[in-house]
Write a structure and sequence with these properties.
By secondary structure, the protein is an all-alpha fold. It has helices at about 45-75, 95-115, 120-140, 145-165. The chain has a domain at about 55-80 and about 90-165.
């Protein structure tokens, strides 16, 4: 360790430069105005990490919604782009799948933007839309199995992050 003077975290006062102790005081025992003990401001590491999970879920919702939207446009405009599976239990026409993807993608992208803006109702809507997206991708597994599994895994993460994120732990 170096014996050089250190500036306590969060302070801009040059007079407070000095070794900081665990009580949040700078040189000469003066309190550091930027020091807060864990939990003083109502947050802890778990809460901050949960909020990061919600932000990641929102970004994944936006990206997943955009990709699903454009896949839907492709299915509507050029139906022959997608493979058809004969004798599939859950038969879906290519254009019908395109419209479904277009609508689901637009709604998921919009809910992701609202979630990123901090609207709390978007968490509930996001969970419902992730469930709908997971079911839709399960039904479309024979058409694109690898992409369907990837989107289902992303939907499971989104559901987990939105349900578990931001909960307060009892003190």
């Amino acid at each position: 360790m170096s014996d050089a003077p250190q500036r306590p975290a969060g302070t801009t006062d040059p007079a407070a430069i000095g070794p900081a102790d665990s009580a949040g005081t700078g040189a000469g025992g003066r309190p550091d105005p930027g020091y807060r003990r864990p939990g003083e401001d109502g947050t802890d590491g778990r809460t901050i990490a949960a909020m990061g999970g919600i932000a990641l879920a929102a970004v994944l919702m936006i990206l997943s919604g955009l990709v699903t939207f454009f896949v839907g446009i492709t299915g509507i405009i050029r139906g022959s782009f997608f493979a058809t599976v004969p004798n599939y239990t859950f038969y879906y026409s290519v254009r019908g799948r395109g419209w479904t993807d277009l609508i689901i993608g637009a709604i998921i992208c919009g809910a992701g933007v609202c979630l990123l803006l901090g609207m709390m109702w978007a968490r509930v809507v996001g969970v419902v839309l992730a469930v709908i997206s997971g079911i839709a991708n399960f039904l479309f597994l024979p058409y694109y199995p690898i992409w369907g599994v990837i989107v289902i895994a992303l939907d499971v993460f989104i559901i987990w992050a939105l349900v578990a994120g931001g909960r307060r732990q009892p003190a």
